[in-house]
Amino acid sequence: MRAVRNDLIAANVLVEQGRMGVIDREESSPVGLPLTDLAYALVDLAAATDGYRDRPAAFVASFSAGGSWASVTHRLIDGAAAAGGLEPPAVKLCLSGAAGGACGSAPPVTAPT
């Protein structure tokens, strides 16, 4: 388990003079699934490419087999998992909720509304 932000979206990231900061941390938690924030940010960026018209569709496009963003999402999550010493398949099962209680008490990443 890791500390997580739980709603890392582009609108909450500020970049100025080569420095980055994150604002609006009301949803943050000291305990959560590894890479939750990366998954949330990737879905947000997928939604941004469509003008934020359909966030649930962006979630499906990011994680479903054959989704238009799935290959990018999985490649980035696999790389981040490997860099953090995590097993990519286990991370994906936890993020999707398919692993049930095996991932601890943190909820899975869900489609934004």
What does this structure look like?
There is one protein chain. By secondary structure, this protein is α+β, with helices and mostly antiparallel strands. The chain has one domain. 40% of the residues lie in helices and 13% in strands. The chain has 4 helices and 4 strands; from the N terminus they run ββββαααα. The protein has a two-stranded antiparallel sheet with strand order 1-4. The chain has a two-stranded antiparallel ribbon with strand order 2-3. A hairpin with a 2-residue loop joins strand 2 and strand 3. The radius of gyration is 14 Å and the shape is globular. The mean pLDDT is 81.
Alpha-carbon distance between the two ends = 25 Å
Helix content: 25-40%
Please tell me how large the radius of gyration is: 14 Å
Number of helices: 4
What's the shape? Answer: globular
Poorly predicted ranges (pLDDT <50, ≥5 residues)? none
How many beta-strand segments?
4
> How many domain modules?
1
| H-E string | EEEEHHHH
Oligomer: single chain
What characterizes the major β-sheet? 2 strands, antiparallel
What amount of the residues lies in strands? 5-15%
Strand order of the largest sheet: 1-4
Q: SS-based structural class?
A: alpha+beta
Mean pLDDT: 81
